[in-house]
Amino acid sequence: MNVHRFSRSGLLLLLLACALWLSFFWQLGSVPLYDLDEGAFTEATREMLASGDFITPYKDGQPRYDKPILIYWFQALAAQGFGLNEFALRLPSALAALAWVWALWRFARRFLDRDTASIAALFMVLSLEVSLIAKAATADALLNLFLTLSLLGIYRWYQQPEDRTLLGIYAWIGLGFLTKGPVAVFFPLVISLLFFASQGAWKRGWQALYFPRGWAVFLLLVLPWHLAIYWNSGPGFFESFFLKHNLGRFSGVIHGHEGFFGYYFLVLPLILLPFSGGLVALIPHLRALWTDALNRFLVLWFLSVFLFFSFSRTQLPHYLLYGATPLFLLLARYRAALRNPWVAYAPPLLFFLLLLGLPELLDLAAQRSTRVHELALLQLGREQLDGRYRLAMGLGVLLVVALFRMPKLPPWQGLLIVGFAQVLLLYGVLVPRVFAVLQTPVKEAAQLARTLAKPTVRYRTNLPSFSFYRGAITPARIPKPGELVFLRIDKRASLSREIPPDQQALRFQRGQVALIEIKGGWESPGLASGP
To answer: Which terminus, N or C, of the chain has the lesser number of Cβ atoms within 10 Å?
Structure first.
């Protein structure tokens, strides 16, 4: 036995275990849920548990057709076991991300080698966007798990065609469809067809596509819930989800998330931090990236996702994660090609410098902003960025500079050290402060409303975590006498045009949100016949 190799492999696995805990589970339930995404998912799960309706998701009493059902079931299951809290509702994402890493590691161990598998997994676990998604109570970690399982399964089947592998692929695609819809079918289909065509293996591709038992497995997983929601709610889900939230996201802008064609050129280095420099090191190996079958499959996987979403009108950073798994494998496989310390350390150094200068950036933004709620957020944020924050981010900058001055240390190893530092700084320093500004006031307002136990509405404000923390549906309408109204502070002027200011009693205001009680004994003529 090669003792040196055993000790090196063992050390990498130990580092991977530490990275998994820090990136996916450490501080998992320590900060409030963020709006809109986490708030919307978790409020729908809360209402599911409260109503006992496990077929149609509702948010604030209205059907929520944004996503299929699977993530709500997993969140509800976790809440049943661990309580209706942040930790439980984020746990399915953390576990899905853990399985996602396991799938990548097993694949790389089989088709590359054990050390490369562990390094690819470390790159993935310590990267910026993967760790964020793993700690978010949304559907994205679960979708990435099923996309990765299905696509890695396609390459395994190409190398060794077995029916059980193909049946597994169709099962993963079906579960992905129950998680986020057609995207779970689209990318495996497109990427596999491109790969088989590039390999001159059209017959193999047709064999995989024309596989009745596989489609039977897919339909067995997908059809029951779709039939049930149609029976339960009519065509609303199909019209909203498939037309608006799928076709609509590609051809139009949803929720204001508009980008531009070069958007993902800017986003890609950010989501891969601190390993972004490895992309530059891949450039001299472009020929090898196409001549080798595995490399070609990984490149086509990434390019298909990158190009598709580059042409989409709705663009969000986490969409690119659907094509990030192959990059982690390529970065690990060609890690020795990253020799230039400037290329390796410049991205994380710039990132840490940006975080170090964040207080000044907030000051600059405050000087230019004229919106009341933005100014309140910036002021509260400036208070959070104290001396301890400065010290922590300064140490991050010094660490990168010190590693840069160690020429004998391979840059990829130095970046693993930076990756651990990045996770510690993000979730030990930055994220708690950001959430204290954005979400803690919402949670405090909801808890006060729950204590006051008065009828509560929200006015021109969509922050669904308020309903989750209040533990009740919060309808959106003009408040009536004796009711509480939750709103963003820039909406107070509009509310005052509906209800005289002397009839409003401020119960809570912090950051961007406020909770107001409408005095009893007063009634607007417009409210006499209802809202």
So the answer is: N
Kind of pairing, strands 484-488 and 513-518?
Answer: antiparallel
Tokens for 242, please give them.
């498939």
In a 10 Å sphere around its CB, with 0-12 CB exposed, 13-18 middle and 19+ buried, how is residue 14 labelled? Answer: exposed
Six-digit token pair at 378? 């910036």
Mean pLDDT split into 10-residue runs, the chain, 531 residues: 64 96 97 95 98 96 93 98 97 98 98 97 98 97 98 96 95 97 95 94 86 96 96 86 63 51 89 96 88 95 94 84 97 96 97 97 93 94 95 98 95 98 98 97 98 97 97 96 96 95 96 94 49 35
Tell me which DSSP letter residue 476 carries.
B
Give residues with Cβ within 8 angstroms of 307, minimum separation 6: none
The owner of tokens 């509260």 is: 380
Report yes or no on 312 lying in a domain: no
Domain end (from 416, 438, 460): 438
- DSSP secondary-structure letter at 493? H
Domain match, 125 and 226 both: yes
Residue 209 and residue 195 in contact, taking contact as beta carbons nearer than 8 Å: no
CA distances from 518 to 388, 442, 481 (A): 41, 19, 5
CA–CA gap between residue 62 and residue 248 (Å, rounded): 20
The end-to-end CA distance of the chain, in Å, is 78
d(CA 352, CA 396): 6
pLDDT single digits (tens) 274-332: 999 999 999 888 888 899 999 999 999 999 999 999 888 777 888 999 999 999 999 99
Indicate whether 420 and 460 sit together in one domain: no
Paired tokens of 439: 């979400």
Pairwise CA distance, residues 18 & 120, whole Å: 15
Residue 281 lies inside a defined structural domain of this protein: no
Mark whether 447 and 432 lie in a shared domain.
Answer: no
For residue 509, the SS3 value is: strand
The residue whose two tokens read 């169709």 is 170
- Alpha-carbon gap, residue 226 to 233, rounded angstroms: 10
H or E segment at 471? none
Q: Does 277 map to a domain?
A: no
Listed in sequence order, the DSSP H helices in 127-276 are 128-134, 140-159, 163-180, 183-198, 202-209, 212-233, 236-237, 248-251, 263-271
Q: What is the DSSP letter of 485?
A: E
The answer to whether position 283 is within a domain reads no
Domain span including residue 213:
3-30+65-260
DSSP state of 314: B
My answer on whether 353 and 400 are in the same domain is yes
Give the number of domains in the chain: 3
* Cα torsion angle, 291, 294, 295, 299, sign: positive
Query: How many helices and strands (H and E) does the chain possess?
Result: 27, 6
